[in-house]
Amino acid sequence: MENLLDRALVAAQQVSTYELRGTVTDMTGLIVEGTGPLIPIGSQVIIRSGAHVIPAQVVGFRSDKILLMPFSEGEGIAPGATIFASEGTNRVSVCEGLQGRVIDALGNALDGQPLPVMEESVPLFRDPPNPVTRTRIQKCLDLGVRAMNGLLTVGEGQRVGIMAGSGVGKSTLLGMVAKHSHSDVNVIALVGERGREVREFIERDLGPEGLARSVVVVATGNQSSLLRIRAAFVATAIAEYFRDHGKKVMLMVDSITRLAMAQREVGLAVGEPPSTRGYTPSVFSILPRLLERAGTCEGEGSITGLYTVLVEGDDMNEPVADAVRGILDGHVVLSRRLAGRGHYPAIDVLQSISRVMSDIVDPQVLKMASDIREVLASYQEVEDLITIGAYKPGQNPRVDRAVKLYDHVNEFLRQGADRPCSLEECWRSMKEIVG
After folding, report:
1. Cys-Cys with 37: which of 20, 67, 309, 400 at CB 3.0–4.6 Å?
2. Cβ atoms within 10 Å of 273's Cβ, excluding its own
3. How far apart are the first and last CA of the chain?
């Protein structure tokens, strides 16, 4: 009986008993101006112009006029078109049966199957957990990726950025984690993804095994900037639902850069002044509002976040990458140089860091990871000399050790996408190399 009452409450929240109306007065570029209805920013509305029905969202105000941005193309909107609004639109319907499904930013199914009966409704926009009552990150999370398990160990509830240029293997790495990690549920947001690559990611990188315990939220690059932004928040809201039910959730957003670009489009359209590299101030305010929602909470559940950052021109210090690094609990850098050598996953260990690793692994593991980093750093210092034959063995014991172990370390860091490696197996291999 209680379950039936919960479903009835969800249905009631989605039904409005009254209707607010306004009229379209102007449209410039992406922005539609109307006389009403006077509703808060973020509310959804419907614009009806003849036979055209166009969903839109309130993005700002100008004097006594509201500023709307359509979720789709603005063709068909005419002066005097009617704007309809109702309450209860900024909520996401969720249930356990969403696992294995692919949905869009509005919660509609994209995989051709009917959605299950939703049991609960959660807010799309929500404050992060109280920072004082959050539990500390104390347990390692097995991601199944050797380089990350061994040298960049991630804890349950940690948030990590994956920094890389285009075509270096971000999606493949996310697919490996989704298939091989020891999380209970994966929630994956594909923000601004190419339409061609969505099915490739689901079938090739994610696979049936990964999809079975995943919820995929898709907003392709041709869709409205509002839908691209909404996709990231919908995925986060779904992840919070599973976290609140005590699950270990892996939240993956690909990519934060495309989210920032979408927010820049909205900001510039409503008249925000551009700042760093054309990004508006609202871009740098939306990032912590989204990223801080992941992590631990008071209960048993946790959200471990992996957020990809598509850096422009392989510049790791560009504004979005710099802002994200300052918020998250670590970052993984994918190197085009390593990818060009056929080294996958192309993780540049020396440029990457996990800020909680020292708190969650044994000192012996930390020492082995430090030794492997020293091997890589020492070899890089003299790599040019070794290549031209100018370095002679015996000149520096530290470099001699690095030359001896370098090939073994590289073999350890390489890994096939279909070959998972557990934490224990990873630590044993590290001990064999530097023990």
Report:
1. 20
2. 8
3. 60
